[in-house]
Structure formats: C-alpha cells, structure tokens
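Page 42, continued from yesterday. The earlier attempt failed because a stray header line got pasted into the input along with the sequence. Redoing it now with the clean sequence only.
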Amino acid sequence: MITRPDQSDAIPDVAMQGPGGTEIRPSDFRGQKLALFFYPKDDTPGCTTENKDFSALKDDFARADTALLGISKDPQAKHEKFAAKHDLAVPLATDSDAGDGLAEALGIWVEKAMYGRKYMGMERTTYLIDANGIIARVWRKVKVKGHAADVLAAARDL
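This time it went through. Structure tokens are written below.
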C-alpha cells in the first residue's frame, strides 16, 4: 500500500511539463504559498468549472501570496486549447503519464470504475503548500462548488 503524503509532509519535488513546454516543479514556488489542484481532464464540466473558479480568484490568491497551478495528465497542447477556449488565468501543468508523475507520488492516480469498466484516473485533490514546501492542507475527492473559495480562505489563514 502506498503511503500518501499528507499534512506536515514535504511535497514531492517531481518535475512536470509547464506552460510553453518548460519544466516546472513544486520547488520553483518556494518562498510563497502554492495551491496545486489536480483534476481529471480538460474541457469536462466539473474540471472546466473548477478551473474557471480558480481563475476568477487568481488576483485574490496573489494578494494572499499564493501561486496557483492546475495539474492533469492532459498534454500541453490540449491545456493551451482549454485555457484559450475558457479564458483561464491559471497556469496548467502536464503530469507525467509514465507512472512516475507527481500524482503517483501523492497516491492520487487511482483505479476508478464507470459503467463496470475499470481505468486509471486522477482523484480530484487540492494541496495547499506553505512557503517552505510543506503540505499545509489537503482536500481529497473535491466537490467543485465553492472549493476555490475554501482554498483561498485557507491560504489567507496560512
């Protein structure tokens, strides 16, 4: 059984592909707080709403000295189309699909089932990381409605 990092643990410093194909890691944000929100798939209803909600609050997060990063397994080309289509303000990163990504390190790339079919998928999860790279708060199996505002409130209190 995988031990999932939780509150008070260091966030694993796994590289992802960031906007423009650049390498991005959680450690790139040291010195400020970071909200990492993992979502299953670009351009699906819940994921679109979640990304729009975080985008709408981006300036409020900035005032709380908190960077935002949305993460899924979708390729950067798909992220770019998704962001342009919905006017998203939050940068999106592509987690590795080789089995060695940040989602695997966090234990949130899990087996799911729909209509009797089993498949691997992202468990919608958000991590609030403090300025030293320590997980301050975790939201598992996120319900989208009101979630971005909840994360903002926690970031302000951190």
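Notes: The first strand starts at residue 16 and ends at 17.
Reminder to self: strip header lines before submitting.
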